[in-house]
């Protein structure tokens, strides 16, 4: 299949031939090619104060040993104890691609929103990899009998996007977890104190004892909003070890706080950036995910 099916991918191995034969580009195509050229020029990552896992699925431990980053799911025998939070950064090229589209300040709202939704699809898929219980049985195929596994419907899945940007991250939830029920919660941030303020709470009074709960927030910056959300879930007798957090970008302050408060939590993120600026935004990050998704 041609590589042009992926946003921003080169379509010719010969730049000269492409210049001679390519039709005039639309503004969006020109923006995409400009972005591709930027990425090629800046392809070497800058060093940071954090050591990140390689694509060989090896993790690392921080000095306080309260949270661990891994590039992929690892066997049970190699997992840390439940007193550590696990942070997964799946090494999938499509995840890297959509993160790159999100980072580009020239990506207009429709492209940004589409990229966030696609990223969410892959992160949710990764988060559900070893999370859902199954039941075994047999089915008759056209050619014989096969042993099979189905998702166990007795273990319900609940999805909680944190408004408003979290809505986009779970836009394709039905394609991965079609039986999941969705509840909404909304926080806004005080721009001076950077503390979250709850303005919408549509959580039920309680959750089933064995419910798997996925919480989605594109940006884990200070961690205050996610801590407040998980606290509300724990008030409803939810075991935080059954919660999976999905984010586009995370920063060390949020991961440190979550690791201190909720050992055994699992976080799935597209990338970990090194720091926050004075306004509490992740650097280099991708800006305000809500504003960029909805064009406000």
From TrEMBL:
GO molecular function terms noted in the UniProt entry: GTP binding; uracil phosphoribosyltransferase activity
Cofactor(s) needed for function: Mg(2+)
Transferase in keyword set: yes
Class of the enzyme per the UniProt entry, highest EC level: transferase
Any one Pfam family match given in the protein's UniProt record, by short name: UPRTase
Pathway(s): Pyrimidine metabolism; UMP biosynthesis via salvage pathway; UMP from uracil: step 1/1
Highest taxon in the source lineage: Eukaryota
Compositional bias of kind Polar residues: 9-19
Location of region: Disordered: 1-54
Family as reported in the entry's similarity comment: Belongs to the UPRTase family.
Protein name, per record: uracil phosphoribosyltransferase
Origin species: Ceratopteris richardii (Triangle waterfern)
Taxonomic lineage of the native organism: Eukaryota, Viridiplantae, Streptophyta, Embryophyta, Tracheophyta
